[in-house]
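for the writeup, i need someone to sanity check this before i put it in the appendix. the sequnce is what the collaborator sent (i think, or maybe the updated version? ugh). structure was predicted straight from it, no edits. if anything looks off just tell me and ill rerun, i have time this weekend
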Amino acid sequence: MEYQDIRLEIKNRVATITIDRPKVLNAIRLETMLEIEHVLETHENDPEVRVIVITGAGDKAFVSGGDISIMGASEGYIDILKTLPRGQAITSMIENYPKPVIARVNGIALGGGTELALSCDIRIASDKAIMGVPEIRLGIIPGYGGTQRLPRLVGAGMAKRLVLTGDHISAQEALRIGLVEEVVPAAELDNAVGKLASKLAERPPVALHMGKVAINSGIQADLKTGLEIEARCFALCFGTKDKTEGMNAFLQKRKPEFQGR
């Protein structure tokens, strides 16, 4: 497939999706999300891809938000309900993807940009990044999961403050409240993301998937149910050849070679 809004690079078992719409600071539209979906569907069972990185082209923006020129032309309630759930489904696909997804937040990440980052597993930001959900300034609220994932990550009070004020925050403030996991100087962003992606690419794929399932499902359940989910995911790992390889490698004092089986 020839992509219009994104670029795809696959190297060393890491697939990097770069949102490339420089004229609008990488603002996303439904077509952008559909292209991301296509990449994820195409490589879900690809053994040569073990980690996904999502980023923005250039050094100014990760994703500046939704494309206002398109959003402003929407007619209203019925029109929006025809398209919004599709985009929400794709952010959920990212969140629940069987492989780790890293957000490389290289610059402005507002509105849909912050929401896209929220759907990823781990967020590493440049110290020049600016984040927030300023939709309230446009007379709307976040629509790609911001009102749901943000409070789960930073707490209800902080989420309400960000959603209801529409304030922008610095990368350091995003780190302080738990919106991102790491902030590095802009010049070191590639190295930081690359090191993490390489580390994850060496881990056992089935166990990575089970770890995500246990956390994502358990965090929405009571503790008893969460522990039951964990037990099932734990047990599933014991049915893999990677479990045997990992334990044998430990006992033999060598580096394991995981195959995803």
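The chain has two domains: 6-201, 205-251. The chain has a mean pLDDT of 95.
thx in advance!!
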